[in-house]
Amino acid sequence: MTKECFRRIYRIFPKPLERLLLKAENAIIYIFYGTLTTLVNYVTHFGLRIAFADIPAGATLTQIYEASQASAVSSSGAAAAAWIAAVIFSFFVNKYFVFEKRGRQGILKEFAAFTAGRLFSFGCEVAIMFVFVDRLGLNELVIKLASNVLVLIMNYFISKLLVFRQKPKERKG
Can you list the alpha helix ranges (DSSP code H) found in the chain? Predict the structure, then answer.
């Protein structure tokens, strides 16, 4: 969804709310795509945990969850694979839809900077999962959600301030 799509949605609201949404537009769009990235991350993470678990036929959701805790893929291993899938998805939606950087010039440099920023937040996520789930035994779903909120905030500022920063001549009026 482009900014124009979001702006069409804003128009259905009363004018004062529409103006407020326009002021927060970049954050709203980032949160929208961040949510989709989180979905990619969760599906990959828990999909791997479930795919490599011994789940009996006809298992309930509770039984599936319990079986996934004994998966051949650890929570930190699943986090690593989920991170790779999420970074690839996130790079393209951030570049083209959130920060609207067009063209392919400098794309490898952008991807390298983007990946470096994501490596930092990935290290934070893996450390959180290792400490709070693998070592302290806290609820994996809750910890995964909390770590994703922290990572989402870190990644926004890394992308906005370091990776997709526009030079003054690139800014739109």
Answer: 3-10, 15-23, 25-51, 61-68, 75-93, 107-129, 140-158
Sequence-distant (≥ 6) Cβ neighbours of residue 17 within 8 angstroms: 10
Q: Smallest Cα–Cα separation from 37: which of 106, 122, 133?
A: 122
Amino acid at 90: S
Integer angstrom CA distances of residue 149 from 37, 63, 105, 123, 124: 12, 27, 31, 15, 12
pTM of the shown model: 0.73
Dump pLDDT digits (tens) for 40-84. Answer: 999 999 999 999 998 989 999 988 888 888 889 888 899 889 989
| 74 belongs to a structural domain | yes
Q: State the residue range of the domain holding 50.
A: 38-170
The CA distance from 163 to 110, in Å, is 6
Instruction: Give dist(CA 11, CA 93) in Å, integer.
Output: 23
In a domain, 21, yes or no: no
Is residue 7, in this structure, part of any structural domain at all?
no
The total domain count for the chain is 1
Structural domain contains residue 142: yes
